[in-house]
Fold:
Amino acid sequence: MARTKEFDPDAALQAALELFWQRGYEATSMADLVERLGIARASIYATFGSKHELYLRALERYCEQSDSARLLDLSQSGPALPAVRAMIRQYAAADGQERLVGCFVTNTAVELAPHDPAASRRVEASLDRLETLLTAALVRAAAQGELPAGREPRALARMLVVLLQGIRVVGKTADGGVRARDAAEQALALLD
Structure:
C-alpha cells in the first residue's frame, strides 16, 4: 500500500519557488531545499523528480502567477494606456529586496537560458506571453485614440518587454533604481 504524503506538495512547490527565486538555481543545493521545504530528500525526488525538474516547475508556477496578475491589470475595460504606464512604473519603482531579487524569469534567462534548452523555452514562452498582453493593450489604446498615429503596437510591445527585462537586470546594481526610473520615463515618452 502506498504511503500518504505527509506534506503539502503545493506548499512545498511554493517554498521551492521562493528559494530558487531568491538564490538562483546553482546557488540552491538539495540540502537547502530539504531545509526550506521541511521534507526529506527522497520525498523531494519522489514528488518532483530532480532538482532541475523542481526548478522548472517552480518557474512555471511563477509564470502562471505573474501572467494572471498582468492579464488582470492589462485587460480591464476603459482606457488601456494607464495600465501599460502603471506596469512600466511598477517595474522601475521596485526597491529593497524586490529590486535585488528581481524577476524569476529574468534571473533564469541570465543564469540558465544560454545553456539549458528547457529553461530557455520557458523563458521564451513567458516573454511571448508578456509581449502578447502588451500588444493587445496597445492595440486597444490605439483603437481608443490613446496612442499617437503611426505608433506600431507590436513593435512598442517588444521594446517594452526588452526594457522591462533590462530594468530587472540593471535594478540589481547599486545605482540600478535611478537608471531604471530614468529609462522608464524615456520609454513612457514614446507612448505620448
Notes: The mean pLDDT is 91.
